[in-house]
Design a protein that fits this description.
About 30% of the residues lie in helices and about 25% in strands. The chain has a nine-stranded mixed β-sheet with strand order 1-2-5-6-7-8-9-10-11. A six-stranded antiparallel β-sheet has the order 12-3-4-15-16-17. A two-stranded antiparallel sheet has the order 13-14. Helix 1 runs parallel beside helix 5, helix 5 crosses helix 6 and helix 8 runs antiparallel to helix 9.
Length: about 375
């Protein structure tokens, strides 16, 4: 079953070598890849203020830092879909080109909840991804890519993404690890490994939080980013606040961890800019979590990811607006709930805001059932 559809969500199942996975990806999602490239990469001036020619030139600088097996998949994807390798590179580097960060619109949010209550044990990671898609492009962003690599040193992964991306901003692996990236203010950007490749490599290679942190610390980073990593096996999580020059960690405390674009570590505070949205969004998430008094569950986590209360004005915000501080807002294009303790993930896309749409359920045990025998599945 290489490509399946469930509601508004498409699931692409890929196996084998990077070339085999890229060829299948490009062949099965030919039309969607062209739509995304045309609506986003080829119209970069209108959407992100960066002329196409400059975007293409800048993106090429990132190639030396992209993992080789990701490049191999990109080349095969481009050939099978009838697109150019250069445009596929650009699509996978959009979040790393400085002009694309649009720091005045920093959004996204991760919330990890953990309860050791023997009567109601719970561990889950909620993640909202905000991105300035146009409505016509957003209709094609509902894609889950499941990879089962032939390389024995790479873990099977599930990535919540959109057509044309080989890297990812959201996902989990067969060891019960999940991750989500959030843009953070960058004072000194440089060329490095695209954040999408960083997170995919994290999922392919990490069996625990220590391994994930070590990997991220060793990456040649291009921009600042706050990365949430949750480990269902140890019921723990980390916030990795990264910039090109440092990587600082915050731990789960009092049963929760909130990771958005607010930098809270000592190193991150140096890089913090004065936008109030991150502080208000963070405060709202903490306020809602503390009101639960440890009564954590799927419904409570979903309510947090759906929340549209703007603390700056003291009311729910329903309209399209800038400088919003709400957890769920007009740019929330994807929402995923990694319910590790229940062995499933809920994904909502194809709606703006995505959390207000329909969440489709994916059985993680079924997804990773054919993983190599050496892999310990989500428990």
């Amino acid at each position: 079953m290489p490509l399946t559809r469930q509601g508004s969500l498409k699931t692409l199942w890929l196996e084998g070598t990077p070339e085999q996975m890229g060829e299948e990806y490009g062949r099965l999602l030919h039309d969607e890849i062209h739509l995304l490239l045309d609506g986003f990469v080829r119209r970069s001036k209108r959407l992100i203020g960066l002329p196409y020619s400059i975007l293409m030139e800048k993106a090429q600088e990132f190639i030396p830092f992209i993992p080789e097996h990701h490049l191999r998949e990109m080349r095969a994807l481009a050939e099978a879909s009838g697109t150019s390798f250069a445009e596929i590179i650009a699509a996978n580097c959009l979040a790393d080109v400085d002009e694309c960060h649009m720091q005045q619109l920093l959004q996204c949010c991760n919330v990890v909840l953990a309860s050791d209550d023997p009567d109601k044990p719970f561990f889950a990671h909620g993640r909202n991804l905000d991105f300035p898609f146009t409505p016509e492009v957003n209709r094609e962003t509902g894609l889950v890519v499941i990879r089962r690599p032939s390389e024995p040193d790479q873990l099977p992964t599930l990535c919540v993404t959109w057509s044309g991306l080989v890297g990812t901003f959201t996902g989990c692996n067969a060891r019960g690890m999940s991750t989500g990236q959030v843009s953070a203010p960058t004072r000194n950007p440089q060329v490095g490994m695209p954040i999408g490749s960083q997170l995919r490599l994290l999922l392919e290679s990490s069996h625990c939080l220590e391994e994930a942190q070590g990997l991220v610390e060793g990456f040649h980073r291009s921009h600042a980013a706050n990365i949430a990593v949750a480990d269902s096996r140890t019921r723990d999580a980390l916030a990795l606040e990264c910039a090109p020059a440092y990587c600082a960690a915050r731990s789960l405390a009092q049963g929760y961890l909130v990771v958005d674009n607010l930098c809270l570590t000592e190193q991150g505070a140096v890089n913090r800019l004065s936008y109030p949205t991150g502080a208000l969004r963070h405060a709202r998430a903490v306020q809602m979590i503390q009101a639960l008094r440890g009564e954590f569950g799927t419904a409570a986590l979903m309510a947090i990811m759906k929340d549209r209360f703007d603390m700056s004005v003291g009311e729910v915000r329903d309209q399209d607006f800038r400088q919003c501080s709400t957890i769920c807002n007009f740019m929330t294009a994807q929402s995923a709930l990694f319910l590790h303790s229940e062995g499933r993930v809920l994904v909502s896309t194809n709606s703006i805001p995505a959390p207000l749409g329909t969440y489709e359920e994916i059985d993680l045990r079924a997804v990773f059932a054919s993983a190599p025998a050496t892999t310990t599945l989500v428990s």
